Amino acid sequence: MKLVRDTWLVFQQEAGLMVRNPVMVAFSLAQPITYLVLFAPFLKVVMVDRGASSYADAYRIYVPGLFVAMGLFGGLFAGYGLLSALRAGIIDRCRVTPVSRTGLLLGRALMHVCLNVVQAVVVTLVALPFGLRVHLGNLLVSYALLAVMVLLSTSISYDIALLVRNENSLGVLVNTVGQPVSLLAGVLIPLVLAPVWIQRVAFWNPFAWATDGMRALFTGQILQTVVWQGALIMVGLAAASLFWSSRLFNREVS
Amino acid sequence: MIEATGLRKSYRVGRGRGASTVEAVRGVDFAVRRGEIVGFLGPNGAGKSTTLRMLATLIRPTGGVATIAGVDLLRAPGEVRRRIGFVAQASGTYDDSTARRDLVLQARMHGVTKAVAQELARSAIRAFQLDDFADRKIRTYSGGQRRRLDVALGVIHAPQVMFLDEPTAGLDPPSRVRMWQEVRRLRDEGMTIFLTTHYLDEADSLCDRVSIIDAGRIVAEGTPSALKREISGDVITIGFGTTGAAEDPVGTGVQTATKLLADQPYVHSCEPVDGALRLYVDSAATAIPQVMRTLLDRGVEPGAIEARRPSLDDVFLAKTGRSLEE
Ligand SMILES: Nc1ncnc2c1ncn2[C@@H]1O[C@H](COP(=O)(O)OP(=O)(O)OP(=O)(O)O)[C@@H](O)[C@H]1O
Ligand SMILES: [Mg+2]
């Protein structure tokens, strides 16, 4: 199918450029690993009443939260890349060919998905010596959930970028939206510790559901309802947001 | 090959009360025949890029119709894309990529297999002489090398019609001449070429026909020689340097001279341009002594005097009252 082929083509190109820039990839790992090493130990102390008696427990709580934070912010900044490609005329050059419009967008988004999953694998490996233990099957499912999440946040970023068409506004919007959404998803400290009103607000935060699902996966409770609920919410929103970005992306073009 | 009628584009800028409309292109008509090199010559903001982007299916015209290689632009943009190539004013390549990678990708976006794409990239590298740097990062290329790659990317699928937006803007003279050779070669290979430029010499020596565009309208159209023939006779440019009296601020010399010379029978018209005066006369040889006499009789000291054949700039000046070179 043409869409699949063209998406793959664009993905290859974008991923190829990313691989040629390993320093960038390494830098993008610095923040998650810092949090992993310097923040997770706090959780062992904070969560001691909630059954986090060991580092293994702390990491089982923190790593899924970190995945959600990475999935959220990793994607939210993808709009920068799109804007610079638009500005440099790269998108125009592609648009004059018969290549699929949706493929141009989807290929880019999938590159971010791939990058974030690779980062998640590195984070998992780094967390192992600290005592993280997780069932392999559940871990793979959590990577899949992360992938959908990145697809959602990437397309949200594309939506904003295509609407504001300006790096500064994109940066401000992404930060003002991203910070509360991540905190209200309980990525740092689980929402069970939050006051009731925060829990009420968080009920409406799709990423909170995803975080709960992710944590359930890490504690081996793959059959908990929140796993498929979180996944379903992410898949639905990602599909809707992607549909909308491709509409915006194709708008000016006949 | 290209036929456009009443092509228009207006942009809405701002929101709410502050909103206004920019009329970028106000209805242009033109036709380009198979195998021609036709140029749009005009100053910054004239609407050249906007016209080209409409024809290349990148933006939707506000009004008007166009057919490209026999296909209706509005009804079948996808078919148009198969038949055209486009090189934008801005480069359109990633700094970290290489010429070969981008050429292969570009060919693949036109739907060919990987093997065919690699072969096409090889022959493009040969044709545009990119061999020396084809596998180097694009950020290390010179302006001329980069621009040659841009054109190679645009023609990788051997389109029937090629759109070039300012192919030589910002290039040094040798690179420009090189690019002209490439453009002529493409035409000899059977392509029809539509380009924009704000260089007079480029329009003059490269284009078979020129449309002069200003503020979204075509003000003149024809072969460069026919356009220049419309301006009969010679052009005399008289400079007014600091040769005037010390208390005379710069500019009064031009003003006085304009007043003195405008009514002279041998002067068709005169236009002040950039602290100098441009006179259109039948023959420079007979006019210059008369000009000198008229000016010196009134105590106006002219600076350098230069006589030449009319250029496209004179055509532009005659049509718009402004010079392109300002
Ligand atoms: N997206 C846009 N929104 C609003 N106005 C625009 C837009 N694009 C172009 N314009 C305006 O339309 C007019 C024509 O622009 P265009 O880019 O076609 O000029 P040009 O002839 O290519 O000039 P240059 O030689 O500087 O490239 C300009 O006044 C420009 O400011
Ligand atoms: Mg332009």
From TrEMBL, chain A:
Question: Which UniProt keywords are listed?
Answer: Antibiotic resistance, Cell membrane, Membrane, Transmembrane, Transmembrane helix, Transport
Q: Name one Pfam family in it.
A: ABC2_membrane
Residue ranges annotated as transmembrane are 21-41, 61-83, 104-128, 140-164, 176-198, 218-244
Q: Could you tell me which InterPro entries the record lists for this protein?
A: ABC2_TM, ABC2_TM_bact-type, ABC_2_transport, Nod_factor_ABC_transporter
Q: Does the keyword Transferase apply?
A: no
Q: Does the keyword Transport apply?
A: yes
Q: Which GO terms describe its molecular function?
A: ABC-type transporter activity
- Residue stretches making up the ABC transmembrane type-2 domain: 23-252
Task: Point out the signal peptide segment.
Answer: none
Q: Biological process GO terms, please?
A: response to antibiotic
The entry's localization annotation reads:
Cell membrane; Membrane
Membrane topology category:
Multi-pass membrane protein
An example Gene Ontology CC term for this record: ATP-binding cassette (ABC) transporter complex
Give the record's family classification: Belongs to the ABC-2 integral membrane protein family.
Q: Name the chain's protein.
A: Transport permease protein
* Organism this protein belongs to: Micromonospora mirobrigensis
UniProtKB/TrEMBL annotation, chain B:
Residue ranges occupied by any ABC transporter domain in the UniProt entry: 2-240
Write out the entry's keywords from A to Z: Antibiotic resistance, ATP-binding, Nucleotide-binding, Transport
Question: What subcellular compartments does it reside in?
Answer: Cell membrane
This protein's source sits in the domain of life called Bacteria
What the entry lists under SUPFAM superfamilies is as follows: P-loop containing nucleoside triphosphate hydrolases
Show the InterPro entries listed in the entry. Answer: AAA+_ATPase, ABC_transporter-like_ATP-bd, ABC_transporter-like_CS, ABC_transporter_ATP-binding, DrrA, DrrA1/2-like_C, P-loop_NTPase
* Gene Ontology MF annotations: ATP binding; ATP hydrolysis activity
Q: Which membrane topology term applies here?
A: Peripheral membrane protein
Which Pfam families does the UniProt record give? ABC_tran, DrrA1-3_C
Any one GO cellular component localisation term in the record: plasma membrane
Q: Which GO terms describe its biological process?
A: daunorubicin transport; doxorubicin transport; response to antibiotic
Similarity annotation: Belongs to the ABC transporter superfamily. Drug exporter-1 (DrugE1) (TC 3.A.1.105) family.
Recorded hits in NCBIfam families, A to Z, give:
drrA (TIGR01188)
Entry protein name: ABC-2 type transport system ATP-binding protein
